[in-house]
Specification:
The complex is a heterodimer.
Chain A: E1 3-6, H1 11-27, E2 33-36, H2 39-42, E3 52-55, E4 58-62, H3 68-79
Parallel strand pairs in A: 1-2
Antiparallel strand pairs in A: 1-3, 3-4
Helix pairs in contact in A: 1-3
Chain B: H1 3-22, H2 24-35, H3 43-73, H4 78-85, H5 92-103, H6 111-120, H7 125-137, H8 140-150, H9 152-175, H10 184-188, H11 203-238, H12 243-248, H13 255-263, H14 270-282, H15 287-299, H16 302-308, H17 314-338
Classes of the chains: A alpha+beta, B mainly alpha.
């Protein structure tokens, strides 16, 4: 599993990173969360609002910060 | 929770909200003069009453409006707005973009992806700017606070002039044909996906969207509100009546450009600046000058221009700030002349 948080370092982007890490811990998944801060790279995903969560190169959502529980649900769905 | 239950609870909360709201004025008087026994008519009494009245009032208005707008915004996504604007000609495009800027969810930290998403989808540069100018400046927080504190006339004036500045500035930037001043890497960005995020479509999801907006936005701005009201309360109680009239009054022609110059580097959101504006107006500042000050604080911010610098060359940034600041000054002079 390859997990990326896309965002330029704004407060919401940091919150998404923190929540994602907590959700992963909750699920017992031990993979790093990669922060992507360069706009040139972010734009390759064709998104229009940040932050966004990308798992295995697929954009799961943009422009919001779900709670830890919601994130755990999203991640476990992808894992299946 | 069923939809019916949600509606009942919602209505009950609304009634309680209304009762508390209607009692704020007398409660603030009672607290100031009876509980704290500050003499009526003293500087301190004026300040304390102002603070105790405005703080709960502004916060309560904020909660209800952010909730409603959160629901409205679940109908609009940046992707949908882009689809509406794609293929529009200028002029009508500028008007639509400014209007959509009011209702589309926007945070200045998303300005870059949004800018690129618009431009690579073929939306004209000027139309994109109309959106980028109106989105931060004409927002629900500003409008409702203006309505709550000054009444519907001032709110309407702010909204219409804010939209006018966004439409005209965008149109002017479009006429200047500055496309070559977009950073080169932007053009190399791949065309945007047609749809990445789908808007939630069930009502309970929309209500949740509203509550989340309240938690996030009110959680973020309450401190600005309180600080702003504290400054406003100080001005209300201690600054002499005619003081502002001499430096921000109608007769001081230079006050409009100075208000804009001071306003641009100041960074605050509407929630923090409006209580200050309230107190300034009370002390004799002219409406046009205050309007110009407020628009430049909310609409033109240094952090946003720094973010946009990543996609725009310096010349285009300078034109953007210059055109918008001129538009704001024209609004300021116009209102000082009319009222």
């Amino acid at each position: 599993m390859n997990i990326k948080v896309l965002g330029s370092g704004c407060s919401n982007c940091k919150r998404l990173e923190v929540n994602t890490k907590k959700a992963l811990k909750q699920l017992g998944i031990d993979v790093p969360v990669i922060e992507i801060k360069e706009y040139a790279v972010i734009m390759k995903y064709g998104i229009m609002s940040t932050p966004a969560l990308v798992i295995d190169e697929k954009v799961l959502f943009t422009g919001k910060v779900p709670s830890v529980n919601e994130l755990a649900e999203i991640i476990s769905k992808v894992k299946k | 929770m069923t939809a019916k239950k949600q509606i009942v609870i919602g209505l009950a909360l609304l009634v309680i909200w209304g009762i508390i709201y209607s009692q704020l004025q007398s409660a603030s008087k009672w607290l100031t003069y009876s509980v704290f026994s500050i003499p009526v008519g003293s500087h301190l009494g004026g300040s304390v009453e102002f603070f105790l009245y405005d703080t709960p009032k502004v916060l309560m208005l904020l909660v209800i409006v952010v909730f409603v707008v959160g629901i409205i915004r679940s109908f609009f996504t940046p992707e949908r707005t882009r689809a509406i604007l794609a293929g529009r000609k200028e002029s009508l495009g500028n008007v639509l973009a400014a209007l959509l800027g009011v209702v589309t969810p926007f945070c200045s930290c998303s300005a870059v992806p949004l800018f690129i998403g618009f431009v690579t989808a073929g939306i004209p540069l000027g139309v994109t700017f109309s959106f980028l100018i109106s989105a931060p400046m004409v927002n629900e927080i500003a409008l409702v606070l203006l309505y709550g504190i000054f009444g519907w006339k001032v709110a309407l004036i702010y909204m219409s002039t804010g939209l006018a500045v966004a439409i005209v500035s965008g149109w002017v930037i479009g006429r200047l044909h500055m496309e070559r001043y977009i950073e080169d890497w932007v053009r190399e960005a791949p065309p945007p996906l047609t749809s990445t995020a789908s808007a939630s479509e069930i009502w309970s999801e929309r209500v949740k969207h509203g509550s989340e907006a309240v938690r996030e936005i009110v959680g973020k701005v309450w401190i600005y509100v309180i600080l702003g009201i504290a400054v406003g309360a100080f001005i209300h109680g201690y600054v002499p009546e005619a003081f502002m009239a001499s430096i921000m009054g109608k007769d001081a022609w230079w006050s409009v450009p100075v208000a804009v110059l001071v306003g641009v580097p100041l960074y605050s959101n509407a929630a923090g600046i409006i209580p200050v504006v309230h107190a300034l107006l009370e002390k004799g500042a002219a409406i046009g000058t205050v309007l110009a000050f407020m628009m430049s604080v909310i609409g033109l911010s240094l952090p946003e221009t720094f973010i946009l610098r990543k996609v725009l060359k310096l010349q285009l940034i300078a034109v953007f700030v210059g055109v918008v600041a001129s538009g704001i000054m024209i609004v300021g002079y116009l209102f000082n002349f009319l009222f």
